[in-house]
């Protein structure tokens, strides 16, 4: 039985996409598939001018589901799992509408990738970030292009090498991942709504053309992220990662 949910609500021409999983909004494969389909649906809906991506609870996203990583037992399964993140990132990149991410709490790994793949991110002061992949024997390969595009190679290096350290929301704003940081979630909610509805009132064609401009030179990402998924898939099946996940689970 699946436990996570993805739902969408349209308010004042803004499509609010909300995801939830009881394990700190971790992302198993079925939830990534649902999220990708909902994003595509929003992109094709003429009643939606702007998309807001958000989650329920205190944590924004805990990244890849450790339970599902532990259950992977062959290369094709592993590739398909990591392709889940690749597809979501590429969908966000290709959508003809701006995607605003509202980050109310901590983000790890793939959650940081979702933020980086959005066009504009607003965050709470509670929204610390971490790329923990190296510490478990893999690496932030699939999300790497999106994070590097937003933060630059120096910040990506710091995040990915110092894999057990939380970086504050203000650090993330300084490096370009967040546009603005707010002291409370009430402020974050209000300012996200104001920005989204303002953007929804702009000319859709002008917005579409600007989004295309912002994502220039990423046309190869369909194949690039598929290659990165292969790297992650091979690493996750090695003994180091499997032993780490078993210890973590205990």
What does this molecule look like?
With 250 residues, this protein is an alpha/beta fold. It has a single domain, classed as Alpha-Beta Complex (2-enoyl-CoA Hydratase, Chain A, domain 1). Helices cover 51% and strands 16% of the residues. It contains 11 helices and 10 strands. It has a 6-stranded mixed beta sheet with strand order 1-2-4-6-8-10, sandwiched between helices. α1 (29-44) packs parallel to α3 (75-94), α3 (75-94) packs antiparallel against α10 and α4 packs across α5. The protein starts with a strand and ends with a helix. The model has no long low-confidence stretch (mean pLDDT 96).
Sequence-ordered SSE layout with sheet pairings:
Blueprint lengths: L4 E7 L2 E7 L5 E2 L1 H16 L5 E6 L7 E2 L1 H6 L3 H20 L4 E5 L3 E2 L1 H8 L2 E5 L4 E2 L13 H8 L1 H9 L7 H6 L5 E3 L2 H16 L3 H11 L6 H16 L2 H11 L1
Kindly summarize this structure in a few lines.
This protein is of the alpha/beta class. It has helices at 29-44, 66-71, 75-94, 110-117, 144-151, 153-161, 169-174, 185-200, 204-214, 221-236, 239-249, and strands at 5-11, 14-20, 26-27, 50-55, 63-64, 99-103, 107-108, 120-124, 129-130, 180-182.
Strand content: 15-25%
Low-pLDDT stretches = none
Number of helices: 11
- CATH domain fold name: 2-enoyl-CoA Hydratase, Chain A, domain 1
CATH first level: Alpha Beta
Structure keywords:
250 residues; alpha/beta; 2-enoyl-CoA Hydratase, Chain A, domain 1; 6-stranded mixed beta sheet; two-stranded parallel ribbon; 11 helices; 51% helix; 16% strand; globular
